[in-house]
């Protein structure tokens, strides 16, 4: 344990810090009691920090903020409190984090509390935090992982039953699996067909990295791999995944590079749409969250000397003398930060791998985490609440499935995909999962029953680009009205979720699915009937024209959120009058003329009519062809019409390709 400081070196104020004092009830005038410990004033803390190690630690953590603390003429006091309020006055404290706050300030810092496993502070429930294991692949570490998994299997019903697209609760195996055997000393494994496997299997989620680093199953070595695979030929992440599978007492492991024939297009197209179910059905998923390539491995070396640790006597209220100790140290290896900075979590495929896996073990650089639908917990004993991805598609979503899908797509399109033709494959499992839970149908990445909302996607960062296929060619991947037609992150503005539909919008034919190799999906056509108006795009962006204060957003008098967006342009009528704004999908690349097709109205503006009162959400269209009596257009952008009087709208029926 690094730089251990004992209680006898602490000041009197710090010696009183305990799981009980940081959750002391302080009656407040408004009747809302607070649980906290009043430490020194900031001025006194800075003096005490010269001799007291805990005061020094508190002062140092508070000063990690972006702005220096102004101490001139203030009597700010340091407040310590725990992250979980006790349920009863005398019950377990369950302290995992000690939060440091300056009174009359938003400045916060965090110390992690932990106790040795088996100590009274731990077994009593007063201290939830635990010290990290020295090695990620130790027997102790895998004992903890197995405990997490078994606890989930026994006590989390939502994680046990997973509805599939068929409506059944199947436990089908993937087409192929690695049989790793039970002998932990064995240096080989074997690729087997589904018919030869029994029981459960583990799945691996990881970053491939350079192709030259990969061991892959190809047509040329398929027979060899079904005879024997030498673990020493595997990159480190794959090899350690075999080790982890054996340590968990499992026999079968699914790894995409080895279980899909990588140079067989037919095999890949058959297996890729099933990947969501593969992770969903797995006993658990192993995630190489701390590695950016397949050579980085699952198990990372822990630096046990990185930070100081304060040892404090543990005094239960029922005893006069201390019974062993508990510890405080600066919080590190935060779950949210690790995921945000992880190259693994930036992969497009990982969104559905992480979301659909019932249980996932994340081997990060600093510690190991476990995540399921029920909760996320760290090796440090702390429970984390940032596992919203695990609730996409779950029965607990409260914001509505249609809006949740917008969040999924927003997250997904901001991630990295090596190949453009993976775009819809890598999220198909998410759509199937949501469809199984709700009965909704999806086409080309949009929910069929929520087209007026979902068609209002916006380019999030500027002009988008055409997708590039594995062979380097640019091929149509989806209809223009789908976000999947182009490369780049997209988003939805919140007001469209509450807007009232103002048109008839439907997909022609009984078409559903996401697969880009399905020509019916790729060429799906929208039928639109509603109000349209001819519009002209300004030569300059909204910001360049200096009109941000004059352009309303969502029917409200807000400053335009896209004021610095390089693809957000002012819309004007042919007369030159200001109409509103639009984000063009490919920036300046598309030239007019354009029409704005009214999709929905923002309810805060009252009831609109053809005379042009109200605020409209619109898609921007460009004419492409005349087919019989119907004009066909492509989508080139979306935005809002906010200045509508006088504007001459036309009722029109048209097709959007």
TrEMBL record:
Residues of the Heterokaryon incompatibility domain: 201-353
InterPro entries recorded: HET
Q: Which Pfam families match?
A: HET (PF06985)
Q: Which domain of life is it from?
A: Eukaryota
> Which protein are we looking at?
Heterokaryon incompatibility protein-domain-containing protein
Q: Which organism is it from?
A: Lasiosphaeria hispida
The lineage, from the top, is:
Eukaryota, Fungi, Dikarya, Ascomycota, Pezizomycotina
């Amino acid at each position: 344990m690094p730089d251990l400081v004992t209680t006898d070196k602490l000041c009197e104020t710090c010696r009183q810090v305990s799981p009980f004092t940081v959750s002391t009830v302080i009656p407040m005038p408004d009747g809302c009691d607070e649980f906290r410990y009043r430490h020194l004033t900031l001025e006194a803390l800075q003096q005490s920090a010269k001799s007291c190690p805990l005061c020094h630690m508190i002062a140092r953590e508070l000063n990690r903020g972006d702005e220096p603390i102004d101490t001139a003429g203030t009597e700010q006091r340091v407040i310590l409190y725990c992250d979980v309020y006790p349920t009863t006055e005398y019950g377990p404290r369950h302290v995992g984090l000690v939060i440091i706050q300056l009174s009359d300030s938003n400045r916060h810092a965090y110390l992690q509390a932990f106790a040795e496993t088996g100590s009274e502070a731990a077994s009593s429930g007063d201290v939830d935090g635990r010290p990290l294991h020295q090695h990620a692949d130790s027997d102790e570490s895998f004992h903890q992982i197995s405990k997490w998994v078994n606890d989930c299997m026994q006590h989390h019903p939502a994680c046990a039953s997973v509805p599939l697209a068929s409506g059944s609760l199947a436990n089908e195996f993937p087409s192929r699996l690695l049989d790793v055997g039970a002998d932990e000393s064995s240096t080989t494994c074997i690729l087997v067909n589904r018919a030869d496997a029994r029981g459960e299997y583990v799945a691996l989620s990881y970053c491939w990295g350079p192709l030259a680093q990969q061991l892959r199953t190809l047509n040329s070595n398929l027979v060899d791999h079904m005879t024997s695979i030498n673990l020493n030929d595997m990159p480190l992440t794959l090899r350690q995944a075999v080790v982890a599978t054996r340590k968990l007492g499992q026999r079968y492991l699914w790894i995409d590079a080895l279980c899909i024939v990588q140079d067989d297009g037919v095999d890949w197209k058959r297996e890729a749409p099933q990947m969501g179910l593969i992770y969903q059905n797995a006993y658990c998923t192993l995630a190489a969250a701390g590695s950016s390539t397949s050579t980085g491995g699952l198990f990372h070396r822990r630096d046990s000397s990185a930070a100081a640790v304060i040892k404090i006597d543990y005094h239960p209220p029922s005893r006069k003398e201390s019974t062993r100790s508990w510890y405080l140290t600066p919080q590190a290896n935060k779950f949210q930060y690790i995921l945000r900075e992880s190259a693994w979590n930036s992969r497009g495929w990982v969104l559905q791998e992480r979301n659909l896996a019932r249980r996932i073990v994340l081997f990060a650089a600093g510690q190991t985490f476990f995540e399921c639908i029920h909760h996320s917990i760290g090796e440090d004993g702390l429970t984390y609440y940032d596992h919203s991805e695990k609730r996409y598609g779950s029965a607990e979503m409260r914001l509505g499935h249609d809006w949740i899908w917008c969040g999924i797509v927003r997250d997904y399109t901001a991630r990295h995909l090596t190949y453009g033709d993976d775009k819809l494959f890598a999220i198909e499992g998410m759509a199937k999962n949501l469809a199984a839970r709700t009965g909704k149908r999806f086409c080309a990445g949009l929910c069929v029953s929520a087209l007026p909302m979902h068609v209002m996607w916006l380019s999030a960062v500027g002009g988008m680009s055409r997708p590039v296929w594995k062979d380097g060619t640019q091929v149509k991947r989806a209809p223009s009205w789908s976000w999947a037609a182009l490369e780049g992150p997209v988003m939805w503005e919140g007001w469209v979720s509450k807007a009232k539909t103002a048109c008839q919008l439907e997909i022609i034919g009984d078409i559903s699915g996401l697969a880009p190799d399905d020509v019916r999906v790729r060429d799906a056509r929208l039928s639109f009937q509603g109000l349209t108006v001819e519009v002209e795009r300004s030569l300059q962006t909204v910001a360049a024209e200096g009109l941000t204060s004059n352009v309303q957003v969502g029917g409200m008098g807000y400053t335009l959120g896209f004021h610095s967006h390089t693809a957000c342009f002012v819309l004007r009528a042919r007369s030159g009058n200001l109409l509103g704004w639009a984000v063009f999908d490919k920036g300046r690349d598309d030239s007019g003329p354009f029409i704005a097709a009214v999709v929905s109205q923002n309810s805060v503006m009252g009831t609109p009519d053809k005379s042009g009162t109200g605020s409209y959400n619109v898609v921007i269209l460009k004419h492409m062809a005349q087919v019989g009596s119907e004009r066909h257009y492509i989508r080139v952008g979306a935005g809002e019409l906010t200045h509508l009087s006088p504007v001459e709208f036309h009722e029109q029926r048209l097709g959007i390709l």
